[in-house]
Structure formats: structure tokens, C-alpha cells
Amino acid sequence: MAAGGGLLAAAPGARALDRPRPHVRTGTWPPGLEAAARRAMPAAVDYARAAGRWPYGAVLVDVAGGHVVTGASNDSGHDPTAHAEVALLRKAAAAGLHLPDHAVVTTAEPCAMCAGALLWSKVRAVAYGTSVEKLISYGVPQIDMSFAEIAGRSLLPRPPALAGDVRCDLTDPLYRGLMR
């Protein structure tokens, strides 16, 4: 981790451009699920565009069928915890969905708060578009810690499979220039 890692970072290039970052992929992905996550990203982008000032979106994908079950947007109102991933988990819980049977596809790498919520929820997999490193390079305020770093420090059994940099062609434009 770069010096100052874990602190709120907003300076462009604070960490993102220090080293090349390969496509992230960890854990066991059921056959067809990563392709389903790629197909689901446009729906997550639609939720992000509906969010307004902070364009973050997430969708829940059924692992068995590969279809989108529901989605959520970041709420830029007065609840600082109303990130798209947390809103999605709340919707899923209210609907009584069994989260280990689902994957979360989100437009940006989950922040530390959302990563913790996703780990506790026991979702099967997480796929994200734009990485925390890229968000920081675009000047978007973030806690400078990747989902993989947070999951790696978790003592919870079986972290979700993880795929990063999924459909960045769709997600990066949401955040490039966001802080202008």
C-alpha cells in the first residue's frame, strides 16, 4: 500500500498511477457468472446515471440464472451510508433474498464501508468497473484501500469471488471529470 494508505485521498494520481494494475480476478467463479456480470454492467450504469451528483449504481445478479434481480443507486440525500451497494443489500434483505446465491455488479470498486457490508452479507461474488485507484486519479475522494485488501484482512469465512475492471469502457466515463 502506498504511503498514507487508508487515509482519505483526493489528490489526482495519489496512488493510482504509481504502478500498473492488472485486471483483478480472485476466487472461484461459477461457470457463466463472470459473463453474466459483464452483461449486467449496463444495468448498473443505468442506475448510476439515475443517481444524480454521485453516479454510482449496483445490481444484484442471480448466480444460477445469470439475470439481474434488482438494482440501486447512490442516494445523494442526507444519509452518508446510502451508497449503491448498501442500498442494494438493504433492498435484497427486505425482499428476503438469500445473498450467497447472488453476485453484486457495481459501477465502481466498493469503498471500505461497502466492502465491509458486502463481506458481511456473504454474497457469492462482486464485480466492479472503475477501481478505487482510477477514482483517486480522477480526483474523486476515496478511502485509499482496495476491496481485495479489505477482504484479505477479513477473518470471515469464504470472501466473495472478485472481478475488477469489468466494462470500464462503460464505467470510467461516469467518473472522469466528475470533480470539475
Automatic annotation (TrEMBL):
GO terms for biological process: tRNA wobble adenosine to inosine editing. CDD domains: nucleoside_deaminase. Residues 32-142 form the CMP/dCMP-type deaminase domain. PROSITE patterns: CYT_DCMP_DEAMINASES_1, CYT_DCMP_DEAMINASES_2. Keywords: Metal-binding, Zinc. It comes from the Bacteria. GO terms for molecular function: tRNA-specific adenosine-34 deaminase activity; zinc ion binding. The keyword Zinc applies. Pfam families: dCMP_cyt_deam_1 (PF00383). This is Nucleoside deaminase. It comes from Streptomyces klenkii. The lineage of its organism: Bacteria, Bacillati, Actinomycetota, Actinomycetes, Kitasatosporales.
